[in-house]
Design brief:
With 255 residues, this protein is mostly helical. The protein contains twelve helices and two strands. The chain is elongated.
């Protein structure tokens, strides 16, 4: 049986703590910018020494997941995966149809996230979606484009958190700046069409209701799809490849 068996690896305490904190970040239970408990509190919670906790934090910091502030404690990094975002921003800014590339990515991620959020989100996660939706409504009434774009991005991120899918959440968080820039660009186009702007408000409400009130996975997915189609129709077609609008519409209308 040589070659089929291996000696189980003993997990060091610092690695076990690091793994658990990573999982909390991945699942959205600890949010970007949130302060971690003190070393003393973590040592008591995990029943280990403070040097062990310190080693775990150093490992998390080396991975870019947390940052320590002198005299202020340890915080989850604001934009996990920012090294992925910056070169992508440059690429999209140079691309003639980058706006549609982002919409296709959002279609793939957010329609699934909405389905999962409606199907299996916790009470706390749904409360967060509701809070973000109310903030988005207030931002829309303010007629401040940048405030509305950020609130919109936070709303969609809350849906991703409610999905309980760590991979979707990580991608959404990693591309948060990209998402916010995309939404701001789309809102600038939609503001030129009053009817489209009204449609947008109704679609946001439909997403919110399907997830928080009705708990309707199919309704949530379809609401996101209709939302993406409305946004795609608002974009300046002269800047886009001819096949892009048709392709997204076909995706939106598919089962």
């Amino acid at each position: 049986m040589t070659g089929y068996l291996s000696i189980p690896r003993v997990i060091r305490a610092a690695d076990a703590i690091m793994d658990q904190v990573e999982r909390l970040i991945l699942e959205g239970k600890v949010r970007p910018g949130q302060k971690l408990s003190s070393e003393r509190s973590l040592a008591e919670e995990f029943d280990v020494s403070r040097p062990t906790v310190r080693e775990a934090i150093q490992k998390l910091e080396a991975r870019g997941l947390v940052q320590r502030r002198h005299g202020g404690g340890t915080f989850v990094t604001e934009h996990v995966g920012s090294t992925f975002v910056d070169p992508m921003m440059t690429m999209i800014q140079r691309s003639s149809d980058g706006a549609f590339d982002i919409l296709e990515l959002r279609f793939a991620l957010e329609s699934v996230a909405a389905w999962l959020a409606a199907d299996r989100s916790s009470d706390r996660a749904r409360a967060n979606v509701q809070r973000r939706y109310y903030e988005l409504q207030a931002a829309a009434r303010s007629h401040d484009l940048h405030r509305e774009a950020r609130a919109d991005a936070e709303f969609h991120l809350a849906v991703a958190e409610a999905s309980q899918n760590g991979v979707i959440l990580h991608i959404m968080r990693s591309t948060f700046v990209l998402l916010e820039e995309s939404i701001a660009r789309n809102l600038a186009e939609l503001n030129l069409d009053r009817m489209k702007k009204q449609d947008l408000a109704l679609q946001r409400e439909a997403i919110y209701r399907a997830i928080v009130i009705d708990r309707d996975p199919l309704g949530a997915r379809n609401a996101v799809r209709q939302h993406m189609l409305t946004v795609s129709e608002s974009l300046d077609r002269e800047r886009l490849a001819d096949t892009k609008p048709r392709r997204l519409k076909e995706l939106t209308q598919s089962a």
